[in-house]
Amino acid sequence: MMRSAGRRMLAGTAGLALLLGLVVAPPVQDTEATFTDEEHAGATVTALALLPPAVEPLPGGLTCPNPLSTILGGTALTIKWRWPTTPTGYPANTALNVYLTSAADGSGGSILAPGTATAGVYTTSVSKGVLDGLLGGLGFVLTGGQYVVYFGTTWVTAGGVTWRSPTKVKITVTYAALLAGGATTCTFAAA
């Protein structure tokens, strides 16, 4: 019995010492150490508004040859225009072109090379073949009629993505009947 009473006393003393140690132990101390991770970044974003080409004022801005020349495969339309310069112009190293489409939303169509420039004015000649492809033929040139095409700007980014100007120039060409000897007229307006 003595042994068991001695063991109980020893266990009780050890438990009491452990309990006193927890009660008397100093509390966890605060520290003034902190962790700070400050990162600063900066960026500049430049937006480019892709504007349509600026067609020169009439009568020189558009030239519509007589219907016979168009039927024989000559130039169907000549457009004189400038790159828009607002708001800040276009970067010199970009691939800018113009396009012609028969769709009011600017989809489809043909991308055209800007053509030659004289004193900042480009001359783009549109062949009968391009218009045939856009309009499904120009049979109405003999009998009279009109067609509408849209002229806009395309830009190919460094990554190869092609953007098109959301606004375009609407060009309307009206042919009088060839046998009636009527004149061809061209007009344009912002689309």
Structure description:
The protein is 21% helix and 31% strand. It is an alpha+beta fold and 191 residues long. The protein is rod-shaped. The mean pLDDT is 74.
User: Could you give a short account of the major beta sheet?
Assistant: 6 strands, antiparallel
- Share of β-strand residues: 25-35%
Give the SSE string: HEEHEEEEEHHEEEE
How many H/I helices? Answer: 4
**How helix-rich are the residues, as a percent range?**
10-25%
Counting helices, strands and paired strands, the structural category is: alpha+beta
Instruction: Tell the overall outline.
Output: rod-shaped
**How would you name the oligomeric state of the polypeptide chains in this document?**
single chain
User: Could you list the spans in which at least 5 consecutive residues all have pLDDT below 50?
Assistant: none
Mean pLDDT: 74
CA gyration radius, whole angstroms: 40 Å
DSSP strand tally: 11
Rounded to the nearest angstrom, the distance between the terminal CA atoms is 110 Å
